[in-house]
Amino acid sequence: MNNKIVASCRNKVSGFSLSFLFILISCISSFAQKKQTKPLTRLEFVFDASFSMFGQWQSGMKMDIAKKMLSEFLDSMQGKDNIEIALRCYGHQHQLRPERDCKDTKLEVPFGKNNIAIIKNRLKTIQPKGTTPIAYSLEQCADDFPSATSTYVRNIIILITDGIEECEGDPCAVSLALQKKGVILKPFIIGIGLDESYLSSFGCIGKFYDASSEATFKNILNIVVSQALNNTTVQVNLNDQVGRPTETDVDMTFYDEQTGIIKYNYMHTIGNKGVPDTVVIDPIGTYKMVVHTIPEIEKKGIVLIPGIHNIIAVDAAQGYITLKMGGNVSPTCIVRKHGEMQTLHVQQFNSTEKYLLGKYDLEILTMPRILLEKVDVSQSKTTTVEIPQAGSVTFSKPSEGPGSVYVEEKNKMVFVCNLNSNLTTETIVLQPGRYRVEYRPKNARESIYTIEKTFKIESGSSIPIKLY
Fold first, then answer.
1. Minimal CB count within 10 Å: which of 23, 110, 166, 196?
2. Strand pairing of 153-161 and 40-48?
3. Are the beta carbons of 336 and 363 closer than 8 angstroms?
């Protein structure tokens, strides 16, 4: 249930009473309504009215055919809820000669409900005249969309054109900037009488459709708006070692692959029927999905097919590492993939974490450090790493002065830590083993005054060491 709604419910209930049931029903109803809220979709048609639209296309002039089909389509939008439409045109205010007007664009009909008749009437009066300032027109669209008062608003541009940029602007850069700012979703471009050779020019702006005939123009318009208005369902299969979608309980982030904007976050769930739960995602655009396993899984180039149930499958077989240590001390463990230096995770002792299958190197930050290589994680199994309980030593110095502690390993002195030269009493937690401490009083100016003591630490024990 939504956190805000739960919090609201808790505030309403100060104690258990007969009114609790009514409050609970109210909260559940509020959550259900929120969950079912449909987004407000704003469609801005950016209509090419440049001089080239005088050209012939199949049964008549491009301009006349485009007007007719757009008007017929707008008729089909009559009475639909949660839709607002606007019309911007370009190349229709100033003649192409004697010079191009590269700012010839205008919002002819602003966003609003029940304004389809106004748009159709304005379309009838538009006549082709000038040039094709696509980049500048897209840039001006930023101010056409009202400020969003809700997260349930989707701003979409549908560009209808028969030509490419003629004013040395960069439509790709403008479109990307608008998407990154969250002003619009990825635009749709319907090319009238163009062909696939224009894909490189328009593909970076948004989703390009080639309307090679009047019939395809009409179909494409329906397809585009269907995508613009409808979300689609997605099921993410996190497959185990044998390809079954049994892995779950991990967060998934969907990014807009072009802009890098975070679009959705879902905690993966296995539903009541034993299959991964279905989530609803906008089919517009291309996604990158990151599954926040350890290490993370990244899947790029995800394109959803509108109107069907999409399944995204990734290999996410996992097992567990449990770290155990007795006593009250809980050291930190750095986890890395075997043979690599990058830190994947920092896990505390007396805890269990899930990892992708593989071998890992553990660096346990005890004193001295413990290094374990090639710790194996297998499918759905728990690998337990248990280290002995630490002990402690308390050093008492006759005066301040430098000192250091070493562990004896294979007849070698291995550095563990320095003593605090400003303290005369200091307690250090150490793993079981044999140690040496070296100390010199601060005022003793000759090395022969070094004091050396050997000692042994046992699990759970505490020992005093006097350095005099």
1. 196
2. parallel
3. yes
| pLDDT for 13 | 38
Residues 6+ apart with CB under 8 A from 395: 403, 419, 425, 426, 427, 428, 437, 439, 465, 467
Complete domains list, the chain, with CATH: 40-229 (3.40.50.410), 231-315 (2.60.40.1120), 318-387 (2.60.40), 391-466 (2.60.40.1120)
Instruction: Give me the sheet containing 286-291, strands edge to edge.
Output: 262-267, 251-256, 286-291, 297-303
* pLDDT over 80 at 197, yes or no: no
CA 421, distance to chain mean position in Å, is: 49
Q: How confident is the model at residue 6 (pLDDT cuts 50, 70, 90)?
A: very low
Of 124, 160, 128, 119, the closest CA to residue 61 belongs to 128
Task: Inform me whether the pLDDT recorded for 23 exceeds 60.
Answer: no
pLDDT digits (tens, 9 = 90+) for 45-91: 999 999 999 998 888 899 999 999 999 999 988 888 788 999 999 99
Q: Any residues with CB less than 8 A from the CB of 418 and at least 6 apart, and which?
A: 402, 403, 404, 405
Q: Tens digits of per-residue pLDDT, 401-430?
A: 999 999 988 889 999 999 999 999 999 999
